[in-house]
Amino acid sequence: MRHLLIASLLAAAVAGPVFAQEPALSTEAEEASIPFVHHGGIRDWQENGDDSLYIQDQHRQWYIAKLMGTCPGLRFATTIGIEARGTDTLDRFGTIVVRGDRCALTSLVKSDPPARKAKGQRTIAPPSAAETEAKPE
């Protein structure tokens, strides 16, 4: 019986370091969430190309939301919708709605404010309806 106890303690001492691994260090920023998105939790937003956007919460903290792919019309959108999947909190599982297209988020992390545009720099306007109509040859 004594040999069994000693063998058990010895096995535990040898196996202990195998199971006690340090957590892996992540190079990515920590995921965040914005509460009360349907009750004034979002103050402002700004597009950042077709695949991400900046979102500002009611406390003036900025976040960058990365999208699963390109989101058609995001560059020219004047309004967006937010689907928080049954909760009132936007996180990486949320969805942005732009002109009826649903664009899933893959990441939402705290960020510095977006860069300001240089004085005199303009954004590109979307093409007018007349420019996009097919012209007969």
Task: Show the helix and strand layout.
Blueprint: H1 2-19, E1 34-35, E2 42-47, E3 52-57, E4 62-67, E5 81-83, E6 89-90, E7 95-98, E8 101-111, H2 129-132
Antiparallel strand pairs: 1-6, 2-3, 3-4, 4-8, 5-7, 7-8
Detailed description of the structure:
The protein is an alpha+beta fold and 137 residues long. It has a domain at 34-111. It has helices at 2-19, 129-132, and strands at 34-35, 42-47, 52-57, 62-67, 81-83, 89-90, 95-98, 101-111. It has a six-stranded antiparallel beta sheet, with no helix packed on it. A two-stranded antiparallel ribbon has the order 1-6.
Give a quick set of tags describing it.
137 residues; 2 helices; disordered C terminus
What is the alpha-carbon Rg in Å?
A: 25 Å
* Number of helical elements: 2
Task: Give the oligomer, counting copies of the same chain as homo and different chains as hetero.
Answer: single chain
The helix fraction, in percent, is: 10-25%
Shape: globular
In what order do the strands lie side by side in the largest sheet? 2-3-4-8-7-5
The largest pleated sheet is described as: 6 strands, antiparallel
Average pLDDT number: 78
Class from secondary-structure proportions: alpha+beta
What pattern of helices and strands is seen along the backbone?
A: HEEEEEEEEH
Regions with little confidence, pLDDT below 50 for 5+ residues:
17-27, 122-137
- Strand tally: 8
Strand content: 25-35%
